[in-house]
Amino acid sequence: PTPTPMPTPGAGKPAAASERTSRFVPLKPQDDSAVRPVRPAADSTAVVPQVGPERTTQQPLPPKPPLDLLAELTNTPPPPPTPLRTLGRRLKIWTPLVLLLVIAFAIAQAVRPLPATALTLTAQDSYTFEGSKLALPWSSEGQGWMDVDGVGTMDTFGEQKPVAIGSVAKTMTAYVVLRSHALKTGEDGPEITVDAIAEKEGGYNQSGESTLNSVKAGDKLTLQQALSAIMIPSANNVARLLARWDAGSEAAFVEKMNAAAKELGMTNTTYTDPSGLKETTVSTAEDQVKLGSAVVKIPALVAITSAASWTDPSGYNWPNYNELPFKMGAIGIKTGSTSAAGGNLLFAARKKVGGETVVIVGAVLGQHKPTILKTANDVSRTVLTAAQDALAPAAILKKGDVVGYVDDKLGGHTPVVVTKDVTAVGWAGLTVKLTFAGNEVPHTAKAGSQVGTLTVGDGTSSAVKVPVALQSDLVEPGFSDKLTRIA
């Protein structure tokens, strides 16, 4: 007989709510062909599979000091901190960094571009000629000015106020024309056709004007002939012809005259016509000397103004109203006379002094003693002769004298010397300046290399200039100099 099973406690009773377990519910319907999962026992808990990694929240720990970390790894406690150990630890950390910075700084200083060199003057920057201040024998009226080109002003007299200058204005006419139409000495230059106006104005000589009355409309004048006509017989009609030929009109040419005067620093000069006949064309002796200093640098014009006379195309010979060229070998420049202006003369002459040739430029304006033009010539001759006699040479430096040094801007100074004797031309009481003009000096150069110029005088192109050269080799600054530079 089959034994009767013992009843399980609680069997047949509904389970209490606390004893209920979750029940597996499939997410997808199971078809019959799939293998059915084994249903868990009623009293077991179903395991829900984990989807994705387990998520936790954990803060990173701060890094431990190197010695603590080493102690933890070796299971050796770190030594107790002391001031000496702390110092040693800091030295181990910072010493490599400091060494790296020092090396980087040294490399940067070594490859950094060198500063530009400079030329410095150590000799005296001026020289004064012995004697009291020079006083030239000027006229008792009018005004005057005398310069030695490239050296300075010799002497002056009278108030330098603008006054009428007459035909001295033709100096600017010639200067402006030659700026646009360059002419070499001995050349004829371009041809200029005489117009009807110039022919008509040629007859103005009957009323007292200076003209070239032999020209006819259609005639041809070379530029050299036209310039000779205005600078020697002082032909007003040719001056106005040149203005029209150069600028298209006399008014346009006058604008060019005033522009040129401004460039030359002639601040007290105003031109209103190319001939100077108008009383409104005014200037000063000082301003005219500035113009004369520019004119003496034009050889073709000097060749014209230094002539004692000129023969025009008709064969008539005109004496130069300026008597100084044939009386004392002057090189020009231009006379001018009207009843308002009186007698005026802008003049120039060369003088060889101590192996140097200098040019004296002077002007005398406002001479009203009759006859006015002769008075202007006589006064100018007297003062020019005295100026030439007053000139004297002075030995300032000898060849090989140290006059300065090349400064490499890092503490290095290489001496420089003059390459020949330095002689200045001057007069009693004159103080001349000595200045340096440096070339583009390299950082290395051999002894004897020219590195600049010593100028004695006012610094213009006519001043005395002597090359200066290195006394010894110029070398680059050393590594220590490069390393220690700050600026």
List the helices and strands and how they pair.
Layout: H1 66-74, H2 83-111, E1 118-121, E2 126-128, E3 143-148, E4 152-157, E5 163-164, H3 170-180, E6 191-193, H4 196-202, E7 220-222, H5 223-231, H6 236-247, H7 250-263, E8 282-283, H8 285-295, H9 299-305, E9 309-311, E10 317-319, H10 324-328, E11 333-338, E12 342-353, E13 356-367, H11 372-390, E14 392-397, E15 402-407, E16 413-418, E17 422-426, E18 431-438, E19 450-456, E20 464-470, H12 479-484
Antiparallel strand pairs: 1-15, 2-18, 3-4, 3-13, 5-8, 6-7, 9-10, 11-12, 12-13, 14-17, 15-16, 16-20, 18-19, 19-20
Short description:
The protein has helices spanning 66-74, 83-111, 170-180, 196-202, 223-231, 236-247, 250-263, 285-295, 299-305, 324-328, 372-390, 479-484, and strands at residues 118-121, 126-128, 143-148, 152-157, 163-164, 191-193, 220-222, 282-283, 309-311, 317-319, 333-338, 342-353, 356-367, 392-397, 402-407, 413-418, 422-426, 431-438, 450-456, 464-470.
Tell me what you see in this structure.
There is one protein chain. With 487 residues, the chain is of the alpha+beta class. Among the domains are: 80-112; 118-129 and 396-484, Peptidoglycan synthesis regulatory factor (PBP3), Domain 2, CATH 2.60.410. It is 29% helix and 23% strand. The chain is built from 12 helices and 20 strands. The chain has helices spanning 66-74, 83-111, 170-180, 196-202, 223-231, 236-247, 250-263, 285-295, 299-305, 324-328, 372-390, 479-484, and strands at 118-121, 126-128, 143-148, 152-157, 163-164, 191-193, 220-222, 282-283, 309-311, 317-319, 333-338, 342-353, 356-367, 392-397, 402-407, 413-418, 422-426, 431-438, 450-456, 464-470. The chain has a 7-stranded antiparallel sheet with strand order 1-15-16-20-19-18-2, with no helix packed on it. A 5-stranded antiparallel sheet has the order 4-3-13-12-11. A hairpin with a 3-residue loop joins strand 3 and strand 4 (152-157). The N and C termini lie far apart (121 Å).
